[in-house]
Write a structure and sequence with these properties.
By secondary structure, this protein is of the alpha+beta class. The chain is 14% helix and 22% strand. This is ARB-07466-like C-terminal domain-containing protein. InterPro entries: ARB_07466-like_C, Zn_M74/Hedgehog-like.
Length: 239
């Protein structure tokens, strides 16, 4: 079981964010990218855009590479999102960014995850989990609700009022797929009784924010890894 660490949601007050090197971002047109130095991007044959990595240092930008040598459709993307075969050593960033043979999104393809019963996991969270799974079939691999901590604790998981929608091939494996799910949760905030939603080192709350694209959500601090920065799962907390 993925051990998701305690999240300190004083983040609702929008703390200072830092760039997260080698973690995902969205390049021009929404293509898969990675936060690397401009020198590293140039050396790999990629192109950069500014502002797509939270609080970029001057030399850290979102790097993407839409053409690489793996068939006619070869492009660089996270392996969790590749619907075809992959080739290493052609793309910027860490080993999980590879040259994919397919232009299809490759998102998901998972069997329906088990949704916890109402009990320690509260009814509002179970209802939210069922709604997301129904709206995004095949896109959620696993669901977590409760955590071994006393309520109220430092997370809504301690009280059974939060869901982690794991949407990559494994815990700690980055994906680009969560943005669509996270924005859907925002857009359905009323029916879900949403408290806040987190994806990709950004947070949105109906009591603080207006409805907007994920790219304009409040940025969060770099917590040090893919899971804590929410690049393998969407977190939703409910009232």
């Amino acid at each position: 079981m993925v051990q998701l660490r305690a999240l300190l949601f004083s983040a609702l007050s929008a703390p200072v964010a830092l760039a997260a090197l080698n973690e995902p971002c969205y390049g021009s047109g929404g293509v898969a990218g990675v936060c690397v130095t401009t020198a590293a991007c140039s050396a790999s044959g990629g192109t950069t855009i500014s502002g797509a990595c939270p609080a970029d240092a001057s030399d850290v930008k979102c790097c993407s590479k839409t053409s690489c040598a793996n068939g006619a459709s070869g492009n660089c993307r996270w392996t969790s999102d590749c619907a075809g075969t992959t080739v290493s050593n052609q793309c910027p960033g860490p080993a999980q960014m590879k040259c994919c043979s397919s232009s299809a999104t490759g998102f998901g393809g998972y069997s329906a995850p088990a949704v916890p019963a109402v009990g320690a996991c509260k009814a509002v969270a179970v209802s939210g989990a069922n709604a997301v799974v129904a709206a995004w079939p095949g896109r959620v691999r696993q669901i977590y609700c409760t955590r071994d901590c006393a309520c109220p604790g430092t997370s809504d998981h301690c009280c059974g009022k939060a869901i982690d929608f794991m949407c990559s091939d494994a815990g700690g494996v980055p994906t680009s797929s969560g943005r669509q799910i996270a924005e859907w949760i925002m857009n359905n905030r009323a029916s879900l009784n949403l408290k806040y939603v987190i994806w990709g080192q950004r947070i949105w709350s109906p009591t603080v924010d207006s409805v907007m694209a994920w790219t304009s959500w409040r940025s969060m601090e770099d917590r040090g890894d893919i899971t804590q920065n929410h690049w393998d799962h969407v977190h939703a907390s409910f009232n």
